[in-house]
Amino acid sequence: PRRLDKKKRGFQLPHVIIILMCIMLAVTVMSFLIPSGEFVRDANGAVDPTQFSYVENDNPITFFDFFYDIPHGIVESADIIISIMVISGVLYVIEQTVAISAALQRLTAAARGKEVFVVLGLTLVFGVLGVIGWGEDALPFVPMVVSLALALGYDRVVGVAIVQLGVCIGFSTGAFNTFTTGICQELAGVPIFTAWQFRLMEFVICYLILALFLASYCRKIKRDPNRSVMPEFQRGERQEQKLMTEQVPMTPRRVLTLLAFVVALIVQVFGAIQLGWGMEQFSGLYVILAVAVAVINGISPSKACTDFIQGTTTVMSAVIVIGVARAIYLLMDQAKIVDTIIHALANVFEGKSPFVVLLLLYIFVIVFNFFVTSASGKAFILFPMLKPLADILGINQQVVVTTFQLGDGFTNWFFPSSGLLMAGLELGGVTYQQWVKFAAKIIGALVLAGLCFAFLAQMIGLS
Questions:
Q1: How far apart are CA 313 and CA 83, in angstroms?
Q2: 212 — phi, psi (to 5°)?
Q3: Left, alpha or beta for 158 (phi > 0: left; psi -120 to 50: alpha)?
Q4: How far apart are CA 378 and CA 412, in angstroms?
Q5: In whole numbers, what is the pLDDT of the chain averaged over residues?
Q6: Residue 37 forms beta bridges with which residues?
Q7: Do the strands 47-54 and 37-41 form a parallel or antiparallel pair, or are they unpaired?
Q8: Which residues pair with 39 in a beta bridge?
Q9: Which of 18, 50, 53, 99 has the greatest number of C-beta atoms within 10 Å?
Q10: 47 beta partners
Q11: pLDDT at residue 394 above 50?
Q12: Are 81 and 323 in contact (CB under 8 A)?
């Protein structure tokens, strides 16, 4: 009994918001140690890498600013937050038709003895969605997939990993990802989505790495549930386990509901690739889906609205986390230390061989990603400097794009400053400590693979 009590009193990471506020505090302290600096920017916000100067910061971070930037961060993340809430509300409307439960029940029944293939198959699906730029869009699916993982006999971490790590490898390699590859190639003066074959090769290799880790973990906890990173996962999960026991008939209306859902996903993919849709358009598409589902199932308008609102409340904790994570960058921007850090590290690159530069760049993007998780934000800050630097050093711009996107991508699903990760963990009922224990080796292997891809791109002269 004493040992159990001692184990219970062991170190536990605090709530995610406390972790993020600690990072905010560290940034505040840095703002008084690192001098403020600015690059000259043109009307479009592009940086002139030759025009940097230290400046007097006439708006230092105050005690009030520290706390004000939390609601400010929520406002700045409004497009993402609204999209997540809308999609969650629509998914809740769909869930009330029990169509998803019926489909999951048949999937779990058909998967008996082959559960690991269901895990790997769904991971591939979310990976493909990541290829076209899905990130926060996938968050509303986390609770649903966690329920499926529990019904298959796995823990919550597996459910979160299916969505989060599946999207991770697709988004990071980003063959058709407008938010990373598209923006970076445009800023680098490279035709958009060129070298997609090389990036799809990256995706396939990353998927195989992830599949090996996931399959190994799933088999391990099937044999011995105590080897799970959350060993008591089988307790208190009876509601999800009902998927395996309670028969839910698949009626024609439920079939049509699922078909409407699939059609919406296909339209979303088409809109992202061909029409350049963003979060607002995706949200509008899901509202149309909610109306279609209500009509198909004969749900009254008032009931549909009630269910929709109920669904939006299920992600409130996650969207607050996203806003607090955004506050970290707002503090850095107010302190004007972002440009100073970039200027100092850019000087380190000068005079180095291409492979050393790629290594330093890769490490720099990873470190910088801890503070600025927005891929497009980092691209607009860095590429006006990286483009001429690459030309001077004889490094192909396509190689720089590849190095940047891989350095930016994988750690978004590991760093606690990532609102995307922390919101997903919150929705899945997994602590950050449990996630680190589970995902550290996987992310480490993917980061190492990313560096190898960058070197390979340089060796073959990727263009």
A1: 13
A2: -65, -45
A3: alpha
A4: 13
A5: 83
A6: 54
A7: antiparallel
A8: 52
A9: 99
A10: 41
A11: yes
A12: yes
pTM over 0.90: no
Task: Report how far residue 160's alpha carbon sits from residue 425's, in angstroms, rounded to the nearest whole number.
Answer: 7
> Cβ(449)–Cβ(209) under 8 Å?
yes
The CA distance from 318 to 366, in Å, is: 24
Question: Residue type for 326, please?
Answer: R
Place of tokens 């919150």: 426
Beta-bridge mates of residue 53: 38
Residue 248: burial class (beta carbons within 10 Å; 0-12, 13-18, 19+): middle
Which has the higher per-residue pLDDT, 376 or 241? 376
For the chain, give the number of residues: 463
CA–CA distance, 396 with 245 (Å, rounded to integer): 57
Report d(CA 180, CA 413) in Å as an integer.
Answer: 15
Q: 378 is written with which tokens?
A: 């980092």
Alpha-carbon distance of 352 to 346, in angstroms, equals 11
Decide: 441 and 230 in contact? Cβ < 8 Å.
no
Residue 245 has pLDDT above 70, yes or no: no
